[in-house]
Specification:
The protein contains 12 helices and 2 strands, in the order αααααααααβαβαα.
C-alpha cells in the first residue's frame, strides 16, 4: 500500500507496542489485553507518516510516473528519473512534485489504526501467553512466525480497507496534463466513481496484497544478518552494523518484491469501462452515452435542418453517432497477464522501473525504524 503499509516497528519480537513490560520475578503475570486501538501507537505512526509523506512525496511522484511508463528503457520516448523531474517542473512547477499528497496524508491515520488493531488482536488470539492453563489448538508457539503472520495479516487488512485512497493517490500523480487537474481528494473520488464505477477503487488490490510478503523477506533476513554479525564478536552490535543490516535487508526485500509495485501501478492507472457506467451508464456519468451531434462521412457536423431537407441517397455516407469520451477497455486484466505483458513489451527491466528512486525513499525510513527498535 501505496504503498502505505506501516513499517516493521511492530513486527519485531520483544518490541511490540502493545505488550506490557516484563513482570517482576515472582509476581503474577499480567493479563493480556483485548483487541483495541492503541492511541499512542496510532498517533506516533500517523505522525511519522505525515512527516514522511511530505518529505518523500517528490520521490513518490517520480517513482510512480516511472512505473506508469509503458515504453522500453532506451526508447526515444522513455523518461528516466531526471527527465521525469524536468517534465514535471516544466508542466506543473514545484507543485507537481507534491501531487497526491492529500490522499497520501489522509491514508496514513486509518492505515495505522487498522494495522495496530489487527496486529495486536492477532497476537492475542493466536499467541501463547504465560497464563494459559492449556495450549490452544490453533496457537502459534514460534515467536518469529507469530509476529510475521500478525504483521502480514494486519498489512493485508489495512490494504483492503484503504485501497481506494491509494488508487486516488496514484491517479493524482499520473493524471495526464491534458486533463483538468483534480482539485481535491473528494472531487477525484467522485469523478473516478462517476466515470468508472465503484470497482475502480479496488484496481490493483491483488498485487497490493502480494506486497505483504515484503515483511516475510525483510524481517527474517534482518535477524539473520544480525546473528551473523554477533557470531563474529562478543560485543554488542554497533550503530553502523545495525544500519548496514537494516539497509541490506530492506534493499533485498524491495528488489525481491518490487515487480508487484509496477503491476499495481499499471492496474490502478488504467481507466476502465464499467459494466453500468456510474454505476449504471456508459462512462459519461449520467446513465447513458448521448451523441452530441450527427456527423457525416467527412467528419462535418450536419444540422437537424439539413438532415430533414436533404434526402439520403444510396451514395450518401450514413450518419455516425459519436459517443462521449469514455474509459477504454483495460489492457491489464490480471496479475499474471500484466506481468507477462510488461515482460513481453518492455523486458525484465520494465518490472523494475523506479526501483532506485523507491530505495532512496524507503531504505532511510526502514533504517531509522529498525535501528531504533534494537
Amino acid at each position: 500500500m501505496a504503498s502505505a503499509t506501516p513499517s516493521l516497528l511492530s513486527a519485531l519480537p520483544g518490541r511490540t507496542t502493545s505488550m506490557p513490560k516484563s513482570p517482576v520475578p515472582g509476581s503474577e503475570p499480567p493479563i493480556p489485553r483485548r483487541w483495541y486501538i492503541l492511541p499512542d501507537s496510532i498517533l506516533a505512526g500517523g505522525g511519522a507518516g505525515f512527516v514522511s509523506s511530505i518529505l518523500m512525496c517528490p520521490l513518490d511522484v517520480i517513482k510512480t510516473k516511472l512505473q506508469a511508463q509503458t515504453v522500453r528503457h532506451g526508447h526515444i520516448d522513455y523518461l528516466g528519473a531526471i527527465g521525469t523531474v524536468k517534465q514535471i517542473l516544466e508542466r506543473d512547477g514545484v507543485r507537481g512534485l507534491y501531487r497526491g499528497l492529500s490522499p497520501t496524508m489522509l491514508g496514513y491515520l486509518p492505515t495505522w489504526a487498522i494495522y495496530f488493531t489487527v496486529y495486536d488482536g492477532f497476537k492475542r488470539t493466536f499467541g501463547v501467553t504465560p497464563r494459559m492453563h492449556e495450549k490452544k489448538g490453533y496457537a502459534i508457539s514460534n515467536l518469529w512466525f507469530l509476529h510475521i503472520a500478525a504483521a502480514m495479516t494486519a498489512g493485508a487488512t489495512g490494504t483492503i480497507i484503504t485501497n481506494p485512497l491509494w488508487v486516488i493517490k496514484t491517479r493524482f500523480m499520473t493524471q495526464p496534463h491534458t486533463e483538468p487537474p483534480y482539485r481535491s481528494t473528494l472531487q477525484a473520488a467522485y469523478l473516478i466513481y462517476r466515470a468508472e464505477g465503484f470497482r475502480a477503487f479496488y484496481s490493483g488490490l491483488g498485487p497490493s496484497l502480494l506486497g505483504v510478503f515484503h515483511v516475510a523477506v525483510q524481517f527474517p533476513l534482518y535477524e539473520r544478518l544480525k546473528a551473523w554479525q554477533i557470531e563474529k564478536t562478543s560485543e554488542p552490535l554497533s550503530a553502523y552494523q545495525l544500519l548496514m543490516c537494516s539497509a541490506v535487508s530492506k534493499a533485498v526485500a524491495s528488489f525481491a518484491t518490487y515487480p508487484h509495485e509496477v503491476i499495481r501501478t499499471r492496474m490502478q492507472v488504467q481507466r476502465r469501462t464499467p459494466r453500468n457506467g456510474n454505476g449504471n451508464g456508459n462512462g459519461n456519468g449520467n446513465g447513458s452515452a448521448k451523441p452530441p451531434a450527427n456527423v457525416n462521412g467527412n467528419g462535418a457536423a450536419s444540422s437537424p435542418a439539413a438532415s430533414s431537407t436533404v434526402p439520403r441517397t444510396p451514395n450518401t455516407a450514413p450518419r455516425i453517432q459519436v459517443p462521449l469520451p469514455s474509459p477504454s477497455e483495460p489492457q491489464y486484466t490480471s496479475i499474471a497477464q500484466t506481468f507477462l505483458k510488461i515482460l513481453a513489451d518492455e523486458g525484465w527491466r520494465g518490472l523494475y522501473k523506479g526501483l532506485w528512486v523507491n530505495l532512496m525513499r524507503t531504505v532511510p525510513n526502514s533504517i531509522v525504524t529498525l535501528v531504533r527498535c534494537v
